[in-house]
Write a structure and sequence with these properties.
Layout: E1 5-7, H1 11-34, H2 43-71, H3 84-92, H4 113-138, H5 143-146, H6 154-178, H7 187-194, E2 196-198
Antiparallel strand pairs: 1-2
Helix pairs in contact: 1-2, 4-6
Length: about 200
């Protein structure tokens, strides 16, 4: 079978992908330490690194959103139900029987229908939970100035932040696993490093 190389991932796209992965990893490691799971940096430093990584990621997201809209790449994330059933059958059964992949990547369509739905869940459910609770947590000292102390409980905000963190942790591990499902276990990782996909 002949292969064709297609340039899929642009330089900035690869930069923000790996930067985001690094920052989320830092937040996971420091977040578990803040919760008392282990001691690595010390509580005070873990809080500082966690906060710094969060602000850096928010800044990266701001640049990425501008980039997505100025390049029309935001269209890559529009959800669709077309071929979702085929994708589910492929990942549930077909992949274990070397079935043909029902989706073909291109520069115009980088994400299959299941990926688009997963990113929709990430952006519409997980992100608001983690960022909303995180910012409330960070600015706890200012709740009184806005009257939030009468309506919010720090325990519930902390619980919400933890729930959001475990949702993102699950997303992260599934995402990493899915990178190993190409024609070789490293094909998708390689394409996110070089930008070139072998079709």
């Amino acid at each position: 079978m002949s292969t064709e190389r297609i340039y899929i991932y642009k330089r900035f796209e690869r930069f923000w992908h790996w930067s985001q992965a690094l920052l989320i990893s830092v937040m996971m490691v420091t977040g578990f330490e803040v919760h008392g799971t282990y001691t690595l940096f010390g509580f005070g430093h873990a809080v500082q690194y966690h906060t710094l990584a969060a602000w850096t990621l928010l800044t990266l997201w701001a640049f990425t959103i501008v980039w997505q809209f100025t390049t029309d790449e935001w269209r890559q994330y529009l959800p669709t139900l077309k071929k979702v059933d085929a994708m589910i059958r492929y990942y549930a059964i077909g992949i274990f029987h070397h079935a043909e992949h029902p989706f073909r990547k291109s520069a115009e369509q980088k994400h299959n229908p299941l990926q688009r739905l997963a990113y929709l869940a990430f952006l519409s459910v997980m992100s608001p939970i983690i960022w909303g609770s995180g910012l409330l947590y960070l600015f706890y000292a200012d709740w009184g100035a806005f009257g939030l102390d009468r309506h919010l409980s720090l325990e519930w905000v902390a619980f919400g932040h933890t729930v959001g963190a475990f949702m993102i942790l699950s997303f992260f591990f599934v995402h990493v696993y899915m990178t190993t499902t190409g024609h070789t276990w490293y094909a998708h990782i390689k394409s996110m490093i070089t930008g070139w996909e072998e079709a």
